[in-house]
Backbone:
């Protein structure tokens, strides 16, 4: 088995941080490249009556969320660089399941590493909804970190 590319799904949760630690160890062990991915899910802006510019609120929310995601990924990039693991990152928008699976396919990832629950607040008996969806749709193995 050869592992040369590992996609790591990150959302800022403790489970995702633990998944990053596992991926970092795999990167070192197999001299594999890590591809860090954060998927922004921005809900529609509320409308508050005539003349309210909801799109401006949405833009502000997106910018803030994007800035937070970039800062989080930059921190992980520095950690990986300090351990001589080749790493790059992407901030995406849309459905986390669809985007994670799409990037893994496009990048020809050998493995996806992710936490079992993220910051969605949804509680599943065994897995979070994103982790479950990725395991159902991914064409490569998925390591779920608890």
Residues:
């Amino acid at each position: 088995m050869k592992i040369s590319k590992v996609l790591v799904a990150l959302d800022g949760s403790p489970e995702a941080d633990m998944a990053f630690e596992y991926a970092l160890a795999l990167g070192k062990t197999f001299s594999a490249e890590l591809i860090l991915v954060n998927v922004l899910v921005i809900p529609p802006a509320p409308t508050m009556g005539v003349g309210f510019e909801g799109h401006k609120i949405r833009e502000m929310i997106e910018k803030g969320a994007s800035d937070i995601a970039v800062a989080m990924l930059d921190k992980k990039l520095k950690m990986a660089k300090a351990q001589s693991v080749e790493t790059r990152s992407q901030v995406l928008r849309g459905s986390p399941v669809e985007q994670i699976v799409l990037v893994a396919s496009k990048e020809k990832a050998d493995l996806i590493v992710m936490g079992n629950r993220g910051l969605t607040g949804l509680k599943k008996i065994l897995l979070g909804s994103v982790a479950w969806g990725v395991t159902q749709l991914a064409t490569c193995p998925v390591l779920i970190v608890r």
Summary: The mean pLDDT is 87. The chain has one domain: 5-145. Residues 5-145 form a domain with the Rossmann fold fold (CATH 3.40.50.620).
